[in-house]
Amino acid sequence: MTVETHGFQTEAKQLLHLMIHSLYSNREIFLRELISNASDAADKLRFEALADASLYDNDSDLRIRIDLNPDDGIVTIHDNGVGMSKEEVVENLGTIAKSGTSQFLQGLSGDQKKDAQLIGQFGVGFYSAFIVADKVVVETRRAGAAADQAVRWTCEGEAEYTIEDIEKQDRGTTITLYLKDDALEFASELRVRSIVKKYSDHIGIPVALRKRADEQDKDSDEPTYDYDTINNATALWTRPRSEIKDDEYQEFYKHICHDFVTPLAWSHNRVEGKLDYTSLLYVPGHAPVDLYNREVSRGLKLYIQRTFIMDDASQFLPSYLRFIRGVLDSNDLPLNVSREILQHSPAVDSIRSALVKRILDMLEKMAKESSDDYRTFWREFGAVLKEGPAEDFANKERIAGLFRFVTTKTEGDEATDSLADYVSRMKDGQEKIYFLVADNLTSARNSAYLEAFRKNDIEVLLLTDRLDEWTIAHVAEFEGKELKDITKGELEESLFADTEDKADKNDSSSTEAIEKISNLLKDKVESVRETRRLTDSPACLVYAEDALSPHMRKMMEAAGQKMPVDKPVLEINASHPLVRQLGSESDEQRSAELTGLLYDQAVLSAGEQLENPALFVKRLNQLLFEGAA
Ligand SMILES: Nc1ncnc2c1ncn2[C@@H]1O[C@H](COP(=O)(O)OP(=O)(O)OP(=O)(O)O)[C@@H](O)[C@H]1O
Q1: What is the ipTM for the molecules in this complex?
Q2: Name one Pfam family in it (predicted).
């Protein structure tokens, strides 16, 4: 018999190293992971047997069995699921196909405590065996393969593993763990029984523990054993809601998602009538490392009449809810359904819209009843939810209601205020919801465009996420109130009356200033007018209602699209000394310099780049020296 030695893929090696050396606070989870894998293998066999029942080979009672040998510190887990071929063993146990792995590994700090937590979020599956064992042997025979086509995979170190052909009498996989000296507790019946009960009660097939039989076979010296089923063995979602405890829902989530972090919320529903299905949807407690990678397949685990059909059935969720995990069990779809059929099925469309409503309900409820959880949710998934209004027009207002913002009235930098909060604080006579787009909070808060809003105590949303402006354009209005960019168009006259400080205004000089500036800047601005926006700054640029903002234009240009430049309006603050000086200045050269300065300041306030920064600096210094002289 030949024994082949193989090296692990780099990522697998790194992960294995971590498993072996990490101080793991919650070591028992290795059993959950291995039982989960065994139960997945049973699901896969059932699925394959839909097309070819002979794969059962007269053994269709799928189950998981655990043998303990406390004397030698050995734990063995058997399943009669689908098993693996030699190629599958190499592929599945020698490499990690999970996307985001190298990204995740780079994120590790070397601090064992922090890393253990990160590993928990990442989910390590099979490799978690190495948390408790220093040697792991996997013997497996693929369903449909002959007894002499089985394989043994052995790993004792971190760098390599061996593979050999063996004979195995029955189909499925047996995993043998040789426990580390400090992990011998995991061979104790009492301990394992309670762990299995905790983690696998909701698994759809029996998990049984080997125990000494009450009656000994008289003809043999060997002890006689039988198996004691520990778990409930009914798939959780098929049970009535009223009978399921919170921790059972949580454990089930961890089982299907291979996630170690408790979910924030769930929603379990049975629908009967025109369509007949059960859904169990979860909001995870943290974002996966690859949330923004659109290539990664994700979605619900699809069952049809209790039979597992596929992981990641993405057709049941719109992309902006791609963070939702869970199970859908349908009685309407055909068992031989494929991803292509799902794409064109009207039943799928109806289920999807019903699920979207459930998810929005669940999020609204969380926002209302558990604000801490909702903050976590928003932090982790807010950016994805923001894709909603563009993708799902019918629900855009409900989705926008779930958004959280930093506004000029928010304390701190965390986005905690909803549009409804904003509307409830609107001033008498205020008809619009105002927002300002900026690169970051500091520049937003210090923006000249906010001056009149501050003075008149009108709240403004501060938008600093890359896609905020695009999102808001799709939302367009909330509770009948238009969302308005404060750098565009005219402001409501009635609201900003206070800003105009009549006493300070010098009408003739401001008319003159406007005339001069208009002439000097005719290539750069559409027109020049007096402002309602400013109280302290001399000037600002204002864009047409339908113009692309500088922020958007920069983004489109960065994406390689050349955008036409719409000339802005220059608004000037007539009571500002610089403007007054300009109005009364008779020297042409000086007027041009002052106008240049005024314009460049407005460009900077708008968050744009100056065309000629050196000239700006020179003019500024000139003015300063004059002042000092
Ligand atoms: N008992 C088993 N029977 C058959 N195949 C198995 C068994 N255990 C593991 N595998 C195969 O090995 C693969 C890798 O398992 P592993 O637990 O590392 O990752 P996973 O279950 O795919 O994902 P996750 O990282 O989310 O746990 C599985 O996808 C499966 O194909």
Answers
A1: 0.96
A2: HSP90
**Ligand 1 atom at minimal distance to the Cα of residue 44:** 4
Domain end residue (candidates: 499, 529, 544): 499
The whole-angstrom separation of Cα 340 and Cα 333 is: 13
For ligand 1, atom 22, name the residue with the nearest CA.
125
What pLDDT score does 119 carry? 66
SS3 at position 319 = helix
CA distance 125 to 122: 9
User: What is the DSSP-derived secondary structure letter of residue 84?
Assistant: -
pLDDT tens digits for range 352-363:
999 999 999 999
Ligand 1 within 6 A of CB of 81: yes
Q: How confident is the model at residue 204 (pLDDT cuts 50, 70, 90)?
A: confident
Residue 337 alpha carbon to ligand 1 centre in Å: 23
pLDDT in tens, 260-307: 889 999 999 999 988 999 999 999 999 887 777 666 667 899 998 888
Cα 599 to Cα 280: distance, rounded to the nearest angstrom:
58
Q: Say whether both 358 and 435 belong to one domain.
A: no
**212 part of a folded domain:** yes
Looking up tokens 């019918």 gives 394
Q: Give the structural domain span for 248.
A: 237-381
For residues 98 and 180, state if they share a domain. yes
Q: Which atom of ligand 1 is nearest to the CA of 79?
A: 1
- For residues 39 and 174, membership in a common domain is answered with yes
User: What is the domain count for the chain?
Assistant: 4
Residue 432's alpha-carbon distances to 405, 419, 426, 481, in angstroms, are 16, 11, 9, 5
Clarify whether residues 218 and 241 are in a common domain.
Answer: no
Asked, for residue 263, whether it belongs to a domain, the answer is yes
**What's the predicted TM-score (pTM) here?**
0.78
Q: Is 42 exposed, middle or buried (0-12, 13-18, 19+ CB in 10 A)?
A: buried
CATH number at residue 7: 3.30.565.10
pLDDT above 50 for 503: no
Evaluate: CB of 129 within 6 angstroms of ligand 1.
Answer: no
